[in-house]
Write a structure and sequence with these properties.
Distance between the termini: 45 Å
CATH superfamily of the largest domain: Bordetella uptake gene, domain 1
Helix content: 40-55%
Largest sheet: 10 strands, mixed
Strand content: 15-25%
Order of helices and strands: HHEHEHEHEHEHEHEHEEHHEH
Radius of gyration: 22 Å
Number of domains: 3
CATH architecture of the largest domain: 3-Layer(aba) Sandwich
Number of strands: 10
Number of helices: 12
CATH class of the largest domain: Alpha Beta
Length: about 325
């Protein structure tokens, strides 16, 4: 902070006007590098998205934004770090459904509150999952799948990347909305799940499109639908599960920026304005589209409402799944 600003802050603090000091800091923001905490390991989907965005985001913001991977405990370690950080706008979180939807229902002693301990800055993107089935399954559509599964309760199965994941809960929601009984098989090793779908040992899977592309393109799995409320821009000819007749079905992955609770609205607005410009960049747009991600911006207030809705949505989904991790 410049000497003049330091003196102004000391003056404000001397007369008990801490808000005045905060305004001085916000007016100068940003004047040094930022840290973007990614609460999952390097190489994860969220990490890849962050690293595509940050170079342009840094350029527009006028300061370097360093990606800091703090993985572990379903994203809650990194989220906790940001929840406890200073409210000066220099430590941010790239959160997602696990950190701000699932966590409060999966961890009894969660060290943060996803609503009270964060200031939502903005949603960045969203990505539909796809519903892929083994080609050994005699179905060509979601309607065929539902009919086939209803006639064989408990016979079909679906793979996921683990208990409590979006892939797991997508299957839970499908069972509930379609009135079927398709068994869940969690995998620690996702590539093995792909092998089992190709061989027919697993009937189906809800998962991001990009990792499943090799199976789909080589005819080892069949694409039936996407899981968003609208068609994915990268698969415009593929119907949604809703269009296929399963009402109120939506399962998406998303990423968004959060700051610690109490961060100045002026700082939040500065970050969000830089985010909007970043996501309008042609290179960023093309890079995300190539990985099956739709830009899906939401400003702070809208993102706050979205976060609250996600907490409630996952409460219901996890209850359907029996509260199992």
């Amino acid at each position: 902070m410049a000497l003049r600003s330091v003196l102004q802050c000391l003056l404000f603090a001397g007369v008990g006007l801490t808000a005045g000091c905060e305004a001085v800091i916000a007016a100068e923001y940003p004047n040094r590098p930022l840290r973007m905490v990614v609460p999952f390991a390097a190489g994860s989907n969220i990490d890849g998205t962050a690293r595509q965005i940050m170079p342009k985001f840094s350029e527009i913001l006028g300061q370097q934004v360093v990606v800091d991977n703090r993985g572990g405990a379903g994203g809650t370690i990194g989220a906790t770090l940001v929840a406890r950080a200073q409210t000066d706008g220099y430590t941010l979180l790239m959160g997602n459904a696990p950190t701000h939807g699932m966590a409060p229902h999966l961890y009894k002693n969660l060290a943060y509150d996803p609503i009270k301990d964060f200031t939502p800055v903005g949603r960045v993107d969203s990505a539909s999952f796809v519903l892929a089935v083994s080609t050994g399954l005699p179905v060509q559509s979601v309607a065929d799948l539902v009919k086939y599964a209803r006639a064989r309760p408990g016979v079909l199965n679906y793979a996921s990347s683990g208990n409590g994941t979006t892939a797991h809960l997508s299957g839970t929601l499908f069972n509930n909305k379609a009135g079927v009984d398709i068994r869940h098989i969690p995998y620690n090793n996702v590539p093995q799940a792909f092998v089992d779908i190709a061989s027919g040992a697993v009937s189906m899977m809800f998962y991001p499109y990009q990792p499943l592309m090799p199976l789909l393109q080589t005819g080892k799995a069949r694409l039936l639908a996407t899981t968003g409320v609208k068609r994915a821009t990268y698969l415009p000819d593929v119907p949604t599960v809703i269009e296929a007749g399963i009402a109120d079905f939506s399962a998406i992955a998303w990423h968004g920026f959060y700051a610690p609770a109490g961060t100045s609205p002026r700082i939040v607005d500065t970050i969000y304005a830089a985010l909007v410009k970043t996501m309008a960049d042609g290179k960023v747009m093309a890079g995300l589209a190539a990985t099956g991600i739709d830009i899906d911006l939401a400003p702070p207030r809208e993102f706050a409402a979205f976060t609250k809705a996600e907490v409630e949505r996952y409460r219901l989904l996890i209850a359907m799944a029996g509260g199992k991790m």
